Structures are given as C-alpha cells and as structure tokens.
Amino acid sequence: MAGVYISYPFCAQKCTYCNFASGVFPRELESRYLEALGSEIRGAQWPWIPETVYLGGGTPSRMAPEALRDLLRQIPGKDLLGQIPGKDLLSQIPGNSWIEATIEAAPGGIAFDSARAWREAGINRVSLGVQSFDPRELARTGRRHTAETVASEIGALRAAGLSNLNVDLIAGLPSQTLQSWIRSLDWIERLNPPHVSIYMLEVDEDSRLGAEVLAFGKRYGAPDLPSEDAIADFYELAVERLAALGIRRYEISNFARPGFESRHNLKYWRREPYIGFGADAHSFDGNLRRQNAETVTEYVHRIARGLSPEVVRSAAGSGEAFFLGLRLDEGVDVDWSRYREGIERCMGAGLLEAQGRRLRLTPRGVLLSNEVFAEFV
Questions:
Q1: Label partner for 197 (CA 20 to 30 A): which of 64, 172, 186, 301?
Q2: Following CA atoms 93, 6, 61, 271 in sequence, which dihedral angle do they give, to the nearest 10 degrees?
Q3: Residue 362: phi, psi to the nearest 5?
C-alpha cells in the first residue's frame, strides 16, 4: 500500500541548522500556495488507496484547521482503524481514515482546540520538532519554545486524543555539552513519547549554520559545535537511554516502542511507493523517482500556468535498495555476488555484520554509515 506526502514549506522563522527547502514567506504567497496545492491534489490519479499520509515542511501545524481539513478530504482513504495504535481514541473521526496520518508541528503554538481539529480532520500522529530542551541551545538556533512549553503542549495533544507522538532531538547543536544532552534525555524520559528521532547535526552549505562552519565563520555559534567524537558519544548515550525505556532503534535516526514505528517513513527505506504534493515534494512508483519544483514561487507559477509541477524524473539507482535497507536495524537481504568486494571491505573494517544472506550495520557502522553507503552508491 502506498503513502502520500504533502509539503508545506512555511515557517514562522528559519532555524539556523535547517537545510530544508522551507522558510518565511509573505502571507499572500502562502494562500496562493494552498490554492496550487489543492489543485495538484485534485488533479491526481489514484491507482491505489493510500494507507499513510504525512504533512511535512516547513511547519504544517501553522496551517489553518479548515485548510488542513479541506486538503485531507481530497485524499482517498478507507476505514483501517483496527490497525492503528490507540484506535479506541480515534473511533469518532469522521470521513477518511488511514493507518497513519502525521503532521509535523513546532512547539510554541499548539493548543487543545487546534489538536482536536487535527484529530477531527483525520490526523492520528504528531511529530514535534523539539530539537533540544536546553534554553541556551534553543536560543542559539532560533527556536522559541521552552521545555515547559513542550510538556504543556504534549499534555494538550494527549487530552485531544493524539497520543501517538514523536519528539525530534539534534545531537551536535552549538554549545551542546554532555550535561545539556543528558538534561534533554531526562525530559524525554519524563514526557515518555512512544517515538523519538535522534539526528546528528548535518554540516552543509544548505543551512546558515552549516555554511558558516564551512566558511570558518563565527555567526550562529559556529565555533561552538561539539566535536565529531562528542556527537557520536551523545548519540550512543541516547541509544542506551532510550533502549532502557523500551524505545528501541529501528532505523539509524529513529527509535520507537513496538508498534509505534513510523509506517510512512518505513516506505522510504523499504522502497515502497508514495506520491508527493507541493514544492520540492518527491514521488516514487517502484521504478521512477519524480521531484516537484523546489521553490515555492516556481511551484505556484507552474500550477498557475497549467504546467506539471514535476521538474525531475529519473530511474531508481541500482544500488539504492541496498543502502536504504541498511539504514534499518533489521538490515537488508542482498545479492552477495554483486557487492562482495565492498561488503568484504566493510566487514573487515567492522562496519557490517552478516546473518546468512542478510547484512546490517554494526554499532560502529551506524556512526560511519555515510562511509558504508558510499561503497554501494
């Protein structure tokens, strides 16, 4: 069964570490984008009924509840409530339903009424971009919430019937120390979400912080990034602390209690089909990958002129099933004869381990996963 991704690349502010195609745009452009997005969805062909929906960005939680409801009404669904964790809380949702329907949200603007409106529109999972619970780290990266805000808003979400929650943390933020990282993990233990994502900071030119680091600049706390060894230690401590809570790693950056793994994101790593709508959205039908126009303005202009928003189409890479599958803790069943040389090099370096034909990353391999993937791209 396929999935649907909806891109909503609008934010209240652009965080220094963010390398996504999102940002702060005029309100007028936001309304035009919603019109274009609705037009693209209405024009879609549906050879299958999607089982998952994911609204990302950006900050789709900023979308007006009625706009969210109108968008979701245009996506086919069917009654799959019997397969949803916490289905007793969702039994009164009107209209379409999916096994999983996620909305990404930024702490600092979530209230009980908005959470209830999301649930009534069909949302049954919320992913919170917390990134840190430490006030200094939050201030230096442009985040406006506090740990207490997150705790209060998680309470509001649960009161509205949205208990399937993910919390994002980033290891490697400016000024982050072992002590501040432990405090963030303490908050995770206190709030007890069923899913946690731990991302190691990416340094590249697509974020303001990354560009500053690469230029050896001093803005955005660039000189105060933890060392690569410290970031690896933070990550490994998180693996240990989360496992003790029953929240186990199932993908390099993702941890969940049994039954609360992200059904939608698993489609990416297992190369299952999905269709994307909106600026910079990607789609995959099992053979071809497609990408919409990256910028909001180009996307809106193409839709307004009656053109397809798609700007890139390419065949799936021959090795991608291998390296995408390796991201999963379960590993991947692989044709050894095709990749034997690379496999043997990685096994000799202690980066891969084998169980029959199946390969998986070792703990060291997880930390050096980009080096492993480079062998097979």
A1: 64
A2: 80
A3: -80, 170
**For the CA atoms of 57, 284, 314, 21, what is the dihedral angle to 10 degrees?**
0
Residue 300's H or E segment, with its range, is helix 296-304
- Rg (the chain; Cα; Å): 21
User: Do residues 123 and 103 lie in contact, with contact meaning Cβ atoms separated by under 8 Å?
Assistant: yes
Local confidence band at 164 (pLDDT 50, 70, 90 cut-offs): very high
SS3 333: strand
Tokens standing for residue 73: 């009404």
* Residue 11, burial from CB neighbour count under 10 angstroms (0-12, 13-18, 19+): buried
Mean pLDDT, the chain, rounded, equals: 91
Rounded to an integer, what distance in angstroms lies between the CA atom of residue 237 and that of residue 370? 20
Total residue length of the chain: 377
Cα gap 24→26, rounded to integer Å = 7
CB 277 within 8 A of CB 44: yes
Is the whole-model pTM more than 0.90? yes
3-state secondary structure 9-34: CECCCCCCCCCCCCECCCHHHHHHHH
- Among candidates 92, 99, 162, 82, which has minimal Cα distance to 127? 162
Please identify which residue in the block is written with the tokens 């839709």: 303
**Contact criterion met (CB below 8 Å) for 17 and 174:** no
Backbone φ and ψ for 356, nearest 5 degrees, come out as 65, -130
